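Quick one:
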Amino acid sequence: MKTRTAYVCGVLFFLLMPVLAMGAAPVIIDHDCTHIWNIPESAIENAVADLHIAYGHTSHGSQLISGMGTSNGSQLDAFMTANGATPGLYRWNRGGADNALDLHNYFVPGDLGNPDRTTWARRTREYLDNPVHWEVNVVLWSWCGQAATSTANIDIYLNLMEGLIADYPHVKFVFMTGHLEGSGTTGIIHRANEHIRAHCRTNNRILYDFADIESYDPDGLVNYMALNGNDNCDYDSDNNGSLDGNWAREWQESHVLGIDWWASGASHSQHLNGNRKGYAAWWLWATLAGWKVEQCPVDSDHDNDVDGWDLAVFAAEVEPGCMNVFAADFGQ
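Output:
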């Protein structure tokens, strides 16, 4: 029997349409939002129909794109199709041709700290002010290494984002944490990321928690950030100060390529980390297009055990969209 993993994203989701103002709760996309098979295909289709996304990044931020498939989504789409998904569903390109997601990758040069800590905001305004880009309704930027900095510098980022939110109410601006650096719970990057998280929770913002996603393997049982995990998925398994393990390679070696994971080629990291960044991206897009994660009872008879009785109750009272959740949690 498997222990149930957390499929709810640690946040109260609300109906969020891409042209409306923020709702009354934050949207936090973290390691619990990486179960791509739990996203209904209809939610993917709605994201493709409704969203026009501008994404600014450099190398570390490219992990999200690697996980979505660098060749306009063809790699992820092939993996999903081979495992039962509708062909062509996970494609993307600039402009949204051929019923693909409209994603303006590298929409302008730079990242949140390159060439400095403010240019990205000016470039975003110039891009949105150009009538050619009138359809853009989602904007997100990533860090490279510059998030490991003072609270004052993080506040520059947060204040610039708040200014954009105020001036472009039709656009969803997605905050992001910085990648892990192997410094654990006492490191500068953890302090900075916690500051970003607190801001998003307090102000009901949208957060793609880059650092949290790469802190866990798909089983979700160990927080590798606390074990000095870094962006390459290395960690200290025995608390002796050396990074002697790699959670992504370990998981890959015990699972099947092409079925449980695929070769994403994520920059600075491992294939599995790229997979999870891409899965979380699609969870984000689906949520921004209005999808609400379904609450699917697995322990259907509430006896603190998942067994055949639960399957019987589930079969009698199945709710659309819950089948994948139960299949994953019921065990082999």
